[in-house]
Amino acid sequence: MTDILQKSNRFLRFKSSKGGGVCVVREIYRRETVPCQSSLCLNNCQESTEELHLLPREVTHYLMPDPAVARDYLEILEESSFTGIIFTQTTVHSVQHEGSRKLLSRLKNIVKDKRRRSIIFHNEFQTYAYCEREQGEILAVWQRRATFQCAEWFYNHLAGQMPIVMLTDDQQTCEEYGKKTVNVFVLTVEDYLNRFWKDISPGLMELYYSLKASVGRKSKGKEYSGYLPQDMLTAGLKSGKLIQGFLQVNRNNAFTEAFVRTSRQDMTEESSSDIFIYSSAARNRAVHGDLVVVEILPKSHWRGRSLIIKDEEGEGEDAAARKDDREDTTPALPTGQVVGIVQRNWKEYVATFAQDEETGSGDKKAGKVLVIPYDYRIPKIRISTRQMNALIDHRIVVRIDSWEIDSQYPNGHVVRSLGKRGDLETEIAAILIENSISVNQFSDAQMKEMPADTPERPWRMDESEVNKRRDLRDTHLVFSIDPKGCEDVDDTLSVRLLETGNIELGVHIADVSYYVRPDSLTDIEARERSTTVYLADRRYDMLPAILSANLCSLVSGVDRYAVSVIWELSPNYDVLDVWYGRTVIKSRYKLFYELAQAISEGLSSEEVVRNIPELQGITGQELVERIQELRTAIGYLMAISRHLKARRVRGGALELESVEVQVQLSETKSIEDLTPKEHLEIHDTVADCMIFANHWVAKKITESLPNQALLRHHPPPREEQFSNLKNCAATHGFDIKTKSNKDLAESLDKCVDPQDPVVNKLLRMLATQAMTNAEYFSTGSLSRDQFFHYGLALDLYTHFTSPIRRYADILVHRQLLSAVGEDNVKLPSNTELDDMSKHINQKHRAAQYAQRESQELFQCLFFKGRGGSDDDEHCIVDAIIYQIRANGLFVYVPRYGIKGPVYLRSKEGQVLYLQTNGSPEWTGGEISRTDQYITVTCLYGQKTYRLLDHITVKLTLLESWAHSSGLKLQLMSNSPHKSSQQEVKNLAKQQKAEIIKEVSSAAEDKRCMQMSHDLGPNFSELKKQYGQTPEEQSLYSLFESFRETALFSAR
């Protein structure tokens, strides 16, 4: 019978000497009668009849390693005990091109050794054993698939006489193909050795583990693919076959999971357009934040996100964890691989030398060493340095220079040292650099633009400027309501009853735009910073202190420039008229929230006078009238606020939970206490007036500048984001409706458990987590139906009320004044404003991250050295379960506002069970779960944990050498913590103040004990760049730091 040849073309892409792409076509001819080289063959297809050249009969199975096993574990296969090995042509090509010449020579020596009875089978020339690579298929995936197809062919060709064992080191391949064909087994190397060789040759297991460790350390860069030529990327993007987006690595599973997001607006949160990138190989040398081009893989290769709580400290994972990961994933997502880089996002990274020299030392003779970035999402970086011994325990700043295709890690260089890891100033500097926050002092040139206000040259208002403005100093009762001790007052209020019976409401904001002119040095610096950065123990201002803490602070008793919005309201609080413009004000009183609330509730006149310095010294009828005037004004404000809030709530406005902390300062400005902020109606009063002003300013600038107004947009969350909220609510019989913001708000109002007040708070926090982020945008860049603010239930919204600390508000002030004809400055175009809004959004997110990380730093430093005993009142706390995962729980600790994981299964596969005496024990067992509960089953019994259950956990410090430290939450009891409510309340009042005070004190003591030569040559420069704001300039910094703290702020 004549053998029929089948012809096909193989397209190979090569890089030319000029850097361009060259496509080469090679013809492949396949036929059916390729010799199988087995002595069991019934088709007589052998070219040689010599028995020693054929696969043996007497073995229990033939062994067929896939390319990765042949490359990484060839030393095992070289053991003389292994016979009957089939190396496919695909495997040989892989060893040749992805391995090395020496490795290929060793493989051929196995085949040449007649005692081994092993062969090379040309599967790519056999018609039915050949496996065509699918378009976009990852090379390693195709190689494993080709190996399995060859194994199947071999088994069928030999009429089932000999089982075939395919060896791989990919667990997914075992699951996908292991049960597909009877007697064609797909095993990992570890499973195979355990089943067949553990008792015969125990040393093989030790060799395997040694090789496995070596595989983890050696360069895997050879697995990376080259990027497609630019012309192919362009054509692919134009046709839609390729997709461009920003690579975002999953911080909680950085080794395996990443996403490509198609727009900057989606970069901080999940989007339905995300492309899932599974494994670092599929990232193809792209780094977090890079603008990349991806190719979508066939649906058969799509993967789901892991539901396992990951251990951040380990790059790899044990077998048990990988098995859990496969079994517990979300539904498959569109999955792709990176085929090109459009723009690198390389920046300065904080890094640390590996604590274990053998792990991180690299090639010491060449001065090359691997450093571990502070951010889990960034790969290790190979640098050249001769200072490793001196900097081994330092945080250093590095930059990436290149990432070659044949290197597992990128190459970089050291920029500078920040100081010893663990020192407070070093850790703060690391946080700032990681978030790309510049905190340099304002330059002399910028300060020269500022007005002077010194005892010798006191600042005075310009009479010509006053004449241009509406003067409210003698006609309006203007006052501020702020936190106690606050000194940067950027907003004030006024309210009065008009002769017509109508009510006049005014919101007056510091006129920062008067002092900061467009394109001045101060303006350019403020635009770059975009926001004041509040950390746990300090702040870094957007504007020089002469403005932020002096001339733009609307304190009582002094004349100030302002920009005002004044409404005339009917007795039913409908808006009859609104006026916008520049004003001159003189605040009469500087109130704090608790005092204003008490006045509204009938605080005695004596107490009012005692708490308001501005009233002291006034007597008689004038005092009575002024107190009554103030009472009336506060009453009007609260009545107006109730109406405004009710209107927004009817429209669907949400009340979400945030963590707010109140700082109490002594007369000497030292922190006396730091307590969870008690929510008062007056808080809503002030907030509603500010929201009202922001809304009406948005209406005015949108009307006047329809294509270039700066607004704030809050899109609705995706329905799937509410799944955890719904599961938690369902455990208490609550039904969360999410069809609209109104439905959600009404549902949350009904989720009240009289026996557990934490439930409603936690559900609102989960609703917060489901929200998307509000962002600034230019009206010319979005369609009109996208302008709305979901959380506030408003069609238009902007930021107008805080220009001291937000650059967006300065831009809005300029737009408003231009709209009313009071300023003739050049406004940014839509394109310019769109670019500015993206920059501002990025800076605001960075500031929020830095604020959160600094507070986590202080929490960790506070818990350092604590938790040694099981009765430490700081560490044994109550926690409430809010999420179920495959190997544990996520809990919320109300006392500290901390959220974190509690593991119920260890890496080794053991489960945690609490004995009858309360002691936790790790033992053999299993875990089962649903969306609402998780059950631990072992020999001792069974325990089920449900959403919103209270448990007791122990908090201890989980230190990290290279990364930021964290807190470990360990299960101590299945019941709520038994501390009395009064104990919890008292401790809650003290804990935040203790954290700041104790850590700051310890850091100061340490600095005082150090000799000057120990601070290093860069100390002065570092202190200048990263040192705390001088105390006299930061009396209110701690309050602002924590007042702004929130899990989410829709406004």
Question: Can you describe this structure?
Answer:
This protein has 1051 residues and is α+β, with helices and mostly antiparallel strands. It is built from 31 helices and 40 strands. α3 (89-99) packs antiparallel against α4 (101-112) and α28 (830-863) crosses α29.
Helix and strand layout, with pairings?
Layout: E1 6-15, E2 21-30, E3 62-65, H1 67-72, H2 74-77, E4 86-88, H3 89-99, H4 101-112, E5 119-121, H5 139-157, E6 164-168, H6 171-177, E7 184-188, H7 189-196, H8 203-217, H9 230-239, E8 242-249, E9 257-261, E10 275-278, H10 280-283, E11 291-296, H11 319-327, E12 336-343, E13 348-353, H12 357-360, E14 368-373, E15 381-384, H13 388-391, E16 394-402, E17 411-420, H14 424-434, H15 444-448, H16 463-468, E18 470-471, E19 478-482, E20 491-497, E21 503-510, H17 512-515, H18 521-529, E22 533-534, E23 539-540, H19 545-551, E24 559-569, E25 575-586, E26 589-592, H20 593-600, H21 605-611, H22 620-651, E27 661-665, E28 671-676, H23 681-704, E29 710-713, H24 723-731, H25 741-750, H26 758-770, E30 775-778, H27 807-819, H28 830-863, E31 876-885, E32 888-893, E33 898-903, E34 911-914, E35 920-923, E36 925-929, E37 933-938, E38 941-946, E39 950-958, E40 966-973, H29 981-1009, H30 1019-1026, H31 1037-1043
Parallel strand pairs: 3-6, 4-5, 6-7, 15-17, 18-25, 19-26
Antiparallel strand pairs: 1-2, 8-9, 8-11, 9-10, 11-12, 13-14, 13-16, 14-15, 16-17, 19-20, 20-21, 21-24, 22-23, 24-25, 27-28, 29-30, 31-32, 31-39, 32-33, 34-35, 36-37, 37-38, 39-40
Helix pairs in contact: 3-4, 14-28, 22-23, 23-27, 24-26, 28-29
